[in-house]
Amino acid sequence: MTSVSGSCICKKISYAYTGNPTKKAICHCRECQKLTGSTFTYNFLVPRENFKWTSGSPKSNRFIQESGIEVDYHSCPECATVLIKESEADMFKPFYLVQAGTIDGNDIKTKPDVEFWTSRKPDWIAAIAGVEQMAQFE
């Protein structure tokens, strides 16, 4: 079974998960834009039972998204890297949303399956061919 590891920028918090993500999703919502200071986040939806923290203890902050969904952001208390997000909303409840940029190695080279909140995507970013486009969380 495939095992993937990841960490924050200062390496004090690390995690691992087994198997492949159920879905790979880019999100263009305002909260993800603010989180990254860019135009989107790239999230790997990993079943919660396949994920474990391997070192350190992340801190958690809860935010209410534009859609009304409550999301917990788990980050390093030292360097503030957000490692995963989680929500009790039906579509996300079975998963942790692993922030793809925190994965060690080249695992983030894979193409996403879906783009969320394309209604917030900047006009200069084209739709990715063959990737489902969702104006919001539907």
Give the % helix: under 10%
Structural class: mainly beta
**Whole-number average pLDDT?**
92
* Total number of strands: 11
* SSE order, one letter for each helix or strand: EEEHEEEEEEEE
Q: What coarse outline follows from CA principal-axis ratios? A: globular
* Unreliable residue stretches: none
Measured on Cα atoms, how large is the radius of gyration? 14 Å
Largest beta sheet: strand ordering: 6-7-8-9-4-3-10-11
Pfam families: GFA
Protein name: Mss4-like protein
GO molecular function: carbon-sulfur lyase activity; metal ion binding
Domain CENP-V/GFA: 4-118
Would you kindly provide a written description of the structure presented here, covering whatever features stand out?
This protein has 138 residues and is mainly beta. Helix content is 5%, strand content 39%. The chain has one helix and eleven strands. It has an eight-stranded mixed sheet. A hairpin with an 8-residue loop joins β8 and β9. The chain is globular. The model has no long low-confidence stretch (mean pLDDT 92).
What topology does this entry show?
Elements: E1 3-7, E2 14-18, E3 23-27, H1 30-36, E4 41-47, E5 51-55, E6 59-64, E7 70-75, E8 82-86, E9 95-99, E10 114-116, E11 132-133
Parallel strand pairs: 3-10, 10-11
Antiparallel strand pairs: 1-2, 2-5, 3-4, 4-9, 6-7, 7-8, 8-9
GO molecular function: carbon-sulfur lyase activity; metal ion binding
Protein name: Mss4-like protein
Domain CENP-V/GFA: 4-118
